[in-house]
Structure formats: C-alpha cells, structure tokens
C-alpha cells in the first residue's frame, strides 16, 4: 500500500483543486455570457432530478472503469441542501462507494463560526478553506482505510 504524508496530500489536493477551479471559471464565464448571470437563481425540481440522473451515470462510468476491487471514495462540496446531499450519498452507495460527508459538514461549521474560508464569490474555497478541507479529507480517508484493513 502506498503511504502519502499529510503535507504531500495537501499539496496534491491544492493542485487538483486549482485545476478544477480554472475549469469552473471558464464554465462560469461561458454561462455568464449565455445567461447574463453566473448562476440560476432557483433550481427547479426537474433540473435537480436531471442532475441526479446525470451524476449517477457519470459515477457509474467511473466505477466501471475502476473496477469493483478499487476503493471508491467520494466527497462533496459544502452544501446545506439536504436533498442534494442525500442524492449524492445514495448514488455513491449504489455504486459500492464511500461517501465522505464530514469534510463538507465541517466547512459549514467553519462558515457558521465566521471563519474566512471562501473567495469573494462566496462559492469557492480560498487557500485557508482548501487547507481545512484537505485536512478533513485526509483524516476521513485514513480512517476509512484503517477500517478496511481491520475487516
């Protein structure tokens, strides 16, 4: 088994987040040009069901490409929307994966405690926020692996 130090994990995590943040920025700008707004103000039930079904298809494809013997771990962005969180957890469970929700729950706690964890857009984590979630994810993954080894 490969062991990665906490510092190395945080470094790798930060680089991955940077990559996805750049892609997200491109998509946001494209959406803004198209709709003259960054976000839909209200997510309709139909859109939520479509998003759930699309996410399930994508997760299934990832699981199929990885195979069932690979430990499939998923964590979600901070979301106070309990319906979306439940959909995500159910999808991950259906593909024999492990949904790690404690890191996103902790982000909500940090935010409610007044910690400055987001960029000015209020959606994306700043450097401090990324470090906090990386610490939480590292701890959760280590515990999951330890539990798997015991069984």
Features:
2 strands; about 5% strand; mainly alpha; two-stranded parallel sheet; about 150 residues
Description:
The chain has 151 residues and is mainly alpha-helical. The protein has one domain. Helix content is 66%, strand content 4%. The protein is built from 5 helices and 2 strands, in the order H-H-E-H-E-H-H. Helix 3 (82-94) links the parallel strand 1 and strand 2 (98-100). The longest helix has 30 residues, at 6-35.
In short:
The chain is 66% helix and 4% strand. It has helices at residues 6-35, 45-66, 82-94, 102-112, 127-150; strands at 73-75, 98-100.
- SS content category: mainly alpha
N-to-C series of helices and strands: HHEHEHH
Domains (count): 1
The low-confidence parts are none
Q: Give, in spatial order, the strands making up the sheet with the most strands.
A: 1-2
From the N-terminal CA to the C-terminal CA, the straight-line distance is 16 Å
Secondary structure layout:
Elements: H1 6-35, H2 45-66, E1 73-75, H3 82-94, E2 98-100, H4 102-112, H5 127-150
Parallel strand pairs: 1-2
Helix pairs in contact: 1-5, 2-3, 4-5
């Amino acid at each position: 088994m490969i062991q990665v130090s906490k510092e190395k994990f945080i470094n790798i995590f930060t680089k991955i987040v940077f990559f996805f943040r750049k892609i997200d920025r491109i998509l946001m700008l494209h959406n803004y040009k198209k709709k003259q707004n960054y976000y839909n103000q209200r997510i309709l039930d139909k859109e939520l069901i479509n998003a759930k079904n699309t996410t399930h298809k994508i997760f299934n494809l990832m699981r199929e490409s990885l195979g069932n013997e690979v430990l499939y771990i998923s964590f979600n962005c901070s979301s106070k929307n309990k319906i979306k969180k439940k959909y995500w957890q159910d999808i991950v469970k259906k593909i024999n994966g492990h949904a790690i929700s404690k890191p996103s729950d902790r982000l909500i706690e940090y935010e409610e405690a007044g910690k400055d964890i987001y960029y000015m857009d209020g959606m994306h984590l700043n450097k401090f926020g990324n470090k906090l979630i990386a610490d939480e994810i590292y701890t959760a993954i280590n515990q999951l692996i330890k539990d798997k080894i015991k069984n």
